Amino acid sequence: MNQTKKKLLITGATGYIGSWLVRFFSDNNYHIIAHGSSEQTISQLKQKLQQQHYSLDAIDFWQQNFMEEWWTFPNFQELEYIIHCAALTSVRKGVYENYNAYFDVNVEGTKRIAKKALELGITHFIHLSSGQIYGNPEIFPIDDHTLKEPINLYGFTKLMSEEVIKSLGTFGLNHTIIRPFSVYGKEQSNIISIILNKIKSEEPLTIFGDGTQKRAFMHIDDICNAIHLVLGNEVCFGEEYNLSGPKEYSVNLLVKMISKKFQKEPHIIYKGSRVNELQRNLADTSKLKRLGFHYTHSLENFIDLLPTF
Ligand SMILES: NC(=O)c1ccc[n+]([C@@H]2O[C@H](COP(=O)([O-])OP(=O)(O)OC[C@H]3O[C@@H](n4cnc5c(N)ncnc54)[C@H](OP(=O)(O)O)[C@@H]3O)[C@@H](O)[C@H]2O)c1
């Protein structure tokens, strides 16, 4: 192992954003510790990395389910950075039956990791929160002054996790809060892949709400680039960055764009949702751009390049 590499723990490395961060920061010469909640998800991550010719010798793995009552954070030697991605992330599964689980993973899990990070004296802790903490504000784009008024359990627990991080900041934790809004890219299961799969399989497509809700999607490569600009950057200590794409797309518009590409229209079933969902989520990214950030991908281009079947 190359001792000059900076050691970076990525929690939730088995998830969508985490797995891309593992590859991105491996490519950028970091020594990665990749966390996942189970042996099964870690072995799936290992398989994916091997298929893409990443050497498993250069990556360490940490398996821990944050819902277990007794768990401790190992004393990783010379750990410099943490990017905390692990969370229960589904807005729609954030129902009362899952109240304890969302609290345990998103709030208590964050507290344990961040507290340990402070005790270890790591250089920088990046916490991935979410645009869901804003709920449905009246003014867009969403910036640092927008009121934080979440409207669902996921959003509430992410806001609580932010407060945990900030409270530890008062005791000396060098931290930055990053809020992705809506992310897209390869290997993903989200609204874009759901529409695509339903068009391919000619099955009915269920849309929750009336389809007018808009999302400002940001490509996973742009998310990785943004986090790279922030990691270890002292200017970003104590700061918060909202990450959305530059344009909003309604769900109905997305269906139209993907249908046009494949020249096939799905049968749509509109259905009410059990949880409160956002109407819009466009972020003001000017603060991020002042760090030198620029977008490298567009959703139109991504859809255009999707392989036809
Ligand atoms: N993707 C987006 O559009 C988006 C938007 C806004 C904010 N975010 C935030 O970005 C972060 C990463 O999101 P993502 O899309 O990559 O999420 P994801 O694909 O759902 O991955 C979640 C990660 O959290 C881990 N996790 C879940 N339950 C756990 C538990 N009980 N104990 C330990 N780990 C657990 C999962 O581990 P296993 O897979 O091993 O179970 C997985 O690695 C999250 O904090 C999320 O709130 C994402």
Walk me through this protein's architecture.
This protein is α/β, with parallel strands linked by helices and 309 residues long. It has a domain of 205 residues: NAD(P)-binding Rossmann-like Domain (Rossmann fold). Helices cover 35% and strands 18% of the residues. A 7-stranded parallel sheet has the order 3-2-1-4-5-6-11, with helices on both faces. Strands 7-10 form a two-stranded parallel sheet. It is globular and about 55 Å long. The mean pLDDT is 95. The site of NADP nicotinamide-adenine-dinucleotide phosphate has 26 residues, from α1 and β7.
Helical segment tally?
9
CATH topology heading of the domain at 7-184 and 217-243: Rossmann fold
Low-pLDDT runs of 5+ residues are none
| Strand percent estimate | 15-25%
Mean pLDDT: 95
How would you sum up the global shape? globular
> Order of strands in the sheet with the most strands?
3-2-1-4-5-6-11
Give the cofactors and ligands: NADP nicotinamide-adenine-dinucleotide phosphate
- Alpha carbon gap, first and last residue: 43 Å
Helix and strand succession? EHEHEEHEHEEHEEEHEEHEHH
**From the coordinates shown, what is the CATH architecture of the domain at 7-184 and 217-243?**
3-Layer(aba) Sandwich
Tell me about the largest β-sheet.
Answer: 7 strands, parallel
Structural class: alpha/beta
Helix content: 25-40%
* CATH class type of the domain at 7-184 and 217-243: Alpha Beta
CATH-wise, what's the superfamily of the domain at 7-184 and 217-243? NAD(P)-binding Rossmann-like Domain
